[in-house]
Amino acid sequence: MSTSVTVGQLAEYLGAELAGDPAGELFRAASLEAASEGEVSFLARRKYLPYLAATRATAVIVGRDLGKLEEIPRSTAVLWVDDAHAALAETLTLLYPEGHRKGEIAATAVLGPDVQLGDGVSIGHHAVVGSGAKLGDRVCVGANSVIGERCELGTDTEIRDLVCLYPDTVVGARCIIHSGAQIGVDGFGYVFEKDRHRKIPQVGRCVIEDEVEIGANTCIDRGSVGETRIGAGTKIDNLVHIAHNVSIGRGCIIVAQVGIAGSTTVGDGVAMAGQVGIIGHLNVGDGARVAAQSGVSHDIPAGETWFGYPARERSQVMRASAALLKLPDLIRRVGRIEKRLNTEDQA
Amino acid sequence: MSTSVTVGQLAEYLGAELAGDPAGELFRAASLEAASEGEVSFLARRKYLPYLAATRATAVIVGRDLGKLEEIPRSTAVLWVDDAHAALAETLTLLYPEGHRKGEIAATAVLGPDVQLGDGVSIGHHAVVGSGAKLGDRVCVGANSVIGERCELGTDTEIRDLVCLYPDTVVGARCIIHSGAQIGVDGFGYVFEKDRHRKIPQVGRCVIEDEVEIGANTCIDRGSVGETRIGAGTKIDNLVHIAHNVSIGRGCIIVAQVGIAGSTTVGDGVAMAGQVGIIGHLNVGDGARVAAQSGVSHDIPAGETWFGYPARERSQVMRASAALLKLPDLIRRVGRIEKRLNTEDQA
Amino acid sequence: MSTSVTVGQLAEYLGAELAGDPAGELFRAASLEAASEGEVSFLARRKYLPYLAATRATAVIVGRDLGKLEEIPRSTAVLWVDDAHAALAETLTLLYPEGHRKGEIAATAVLGPDVQLGDGVSIGHHAVVGSGAKLGDRVCVGANSVIGERCELGTDTEIRDLVCLYPDTVVGARCIIHSGAQIGVDGFGYVFEKDRHRKIPQVGRCVIEDEVEIGANTCIDRGSVGETRIGAGTKIDNLVHIAHNVSIGRGCIIVAQVGIAGSTTVGDGVAMAGQVGIIGHLNVGDGARVAAQSGVSHDIPAGETWFGYPARERSQVMRASAALLKLPDLIRRVGRIEKRLNTEDQA
């Protein structure tokens, strides 16, 4: 499922400065150390420079910010670009055109009554689409997935295999939901009555806006009453938990195993690293950043970087850490003072 | 899948004190800010008071503990109750009767030999029920779920879509198991032999007692030998890990992404907040509470509240935190003493 | 699905020293407190000694390191062994021969074109095997699982129910992949362009070497370019996240809910306890050990034990903790010094 391109064509496509033979043909991408003839590789971090000297790639995409490099093998063409990651994304899109969408409805798929299908919809084997669901043009539903009753999926959205959308879930256009994700799940809501936890029926819904990607085995609850909402362009990694009535803004990055408790509001452009936990009913401001494994129990103002457990603003954590580093020395200093005062007493 | 009720009928049903028009008709519930005519909303926290003034809900359920409120729009009826959350639970149960159970066995479901089905059992499309399984009256198994051989499910238990019960798992009555949950999985048990980890066969079973709810993508291992057991009325959130031979008591609350290692025993009425980790072979006493992200490596006595990493009893953590806060000041004080003693030397 | 053996036969099979009646017949294993006639139990930790006196097991396997025991009921035979866990593994393998493999292809399974099946392959109901996939001899694929196009599975590998292997995933021989695991998933890779996160196509693959076990609902990403690789004999627990281009060595133990970020390299024989997080582009040396919930943001040299958040080498953490414990006392000491100096002033 890959196509080919010459080195010269790729340089032109990327607007790259080419040093080397433009005639070499490229079929695939590979890492510097694994690449061989016919493959393009890339270098974006100085850390991986040692692999460059030995590479057998036909061409390498290199960021201009890395400066002059001496280690490039003569047989390898170099494509100098401003942003190696962006150029890689473009190169891969060129070399590996998407192959999922076939516009076929598998014979073993089951569609309930009143399902509306757009043009070119694909539905995999043993998928189940509940009654009243609406699938936009070119939507793709993977094998063994379950689309609940009355769900709505926007154009070009791709649901991978073994995904479950609970009833009434709304997914926008151009989204990707990876295998094992569970969307629109009942939230965790109980009221304690006498001697037992009574379930509060979870009757809200879950809305995923356009161009959201959701990782494998991630769980997003529906609103208890009202909505859980993931803003347009937000990207969510694997094994993330997002509780009921959470609202996440546009263009956020939420890394694997993050957990966000109920009714918390996250602004636009927020980045949370892996395993972060955020308690419920908080506000995380636009553009905030939270470092890995932080435990957040207070509102985060817009634009701030927080970390730690409990998490605080970066400069506060830095000051506290600096003080802690001085502690062993401080213990010695106090000991010296006591000794001296003691000596004076005896003098 | 909702029904309707008048404001007056709802007030009577809840035993609420009504201020406003009893004739308004209620079809659905919605949050204060999203509600419109025909919808009932609720207010349980002062934090959300600002939304009350602008609500267009036909009626609002309000907790008496919030005291007199001035912000209520004239067109909105107020139902004063003692416990707004409990009243909400009752209201939602009234407005949204459950619609899952249909008593149908899908034509595409596969049932092994010797399966016993009670009255009114529902089995979804492409579900697989292994040989010798017993499903009680009105049990509901979702689409694409797999019920292992010889599993037993009590009356009125609901297994959602894409759930897997490993063979010999026992689930009580009135349980709900959400999509993607894996129950009765092989535990993580190996013995190191020469140069490799040899698997210890996991031959025990997993027992879920009555009225347990298990969240999406949660994993509960079977006993290695003996049982893993979840006590009656315990509620477990999404993405929780419970290892082999863990025993959890009755009426516990275990929030998302908690992990409990093997052979740990948890008492009755314990509450663990999100992302807590508990190491193996510990005892957590009845009624203990563990705050979010805590890392527990010691037994917790009954009734205590623990937190931190490593987790300790609350008052200990408080004392340690208070001491830490004094550290920057302490560094300055020691500096002043040294300076003074130094000055005296020179005097 | 169990067989039987006499106490004498078991003693001979284990090379155990037998004290008691060799004629008793054993059908199953059980824990000390649950065991009854016909069952064998075991004792490996002093902690569980109190259960020994009351056991009704027909035989108990006991580690020689526990020394002389007085509490053994007369009716119970004792099998003394050097390593109780190893003996248990052998006993369970004897009593519970594996029953999964049947060599049947379910009529409801769907196989794409050009699928290659070895001898004795089993495929469960509603499983989907993509075109060009190769399944070695005696491979077992569970119900409702999805094997992507061009995947390769080695001999005797067992894929449980509801597993998804993304296209081009390679799994070695004698592996076990538990239900809900998602292998070869797109990694979390974006490049920020103007006002949006553009997806970097993830075109690498995921390679699982021989004798790897992967827990339920664990997610392993494919390489972005190049590979993600799990070394032979490594065992991975439930709900673990392994990002793109991670390389894990041979014989590692990775406990539940661990997360390893992209491009990190883990050596051979590494052990990570539950909920550990490791950031990207790091090196974890051979034989390193990381304690539960640690947050690792630096390379770990071979053989070291690290813990904490942020994680550091054990002796460093110990020293820091010792200093911290002295802090409340230090505050008092400084107060006394200040008081004394103050008194001197007034004198």
Number of strands of chain A: 39
Determine the strand fraction of chain A and express it as a percent band.
25-35%
Helix content of chain A: 10-25%
Head-to-tail CA distance between termini of chain A: 90 Å
Quaternary organization: homotrimer
Tally of helical runs of chain A: 5
CATH superfamily of the largest domain in chain A: Hexapeptide repeat proteins
Structure overview:
The structure is a homotrimer of 347-residue chains. By secondary structure, chain A is of the alpha/beta class. Chain A has three domains: 5-95, Udp-n-acetylmuramoylalanyl-d-glutamate--2,6- Diaminopimelate Ligase, Chain: A, domain 1 (3-Layer(aba) Sandwich), CATH 3.40.1390.10; 110-315, 3 Solenoid (UDP N-Acetylglucosamine Acyltransferase, domain 1), CATH 2.160.10.10; 316-346. Chain A has an eleven-stranded mixed beta sheet with strand order 10-13-16-19-24-27-30-33-36-38-39. In chain A, strands 8-11-14-17-20-25-28-31-34-37 form a ten-stranded parallel beta sheet, with no helix packed on it. The longest helix of chain A is centred in the last third of the chain and has 20 residues, at 327-346. The radius of gyration of chain A is 27 Å and the shape is flat. At the B-C interface, strand 21, strand 22, helix 4 and helix 5 of B face strand 4, helix 3 and helix 5 of C.
Key attributes of the depicted protein:
homotrimer, 347 residues, alpha/beta, Udp-n-acetylmuramoylalanyl-d-glutamate--2,6- Diaminopimelate Ligase, Chain: A, domain 1, UDP N-Acetylglucosamine Acyltransferase, domain 1, 3 domains, eleven-stranded mixed β-sheet, ten-stranded parallel β-sheet, 16% helix
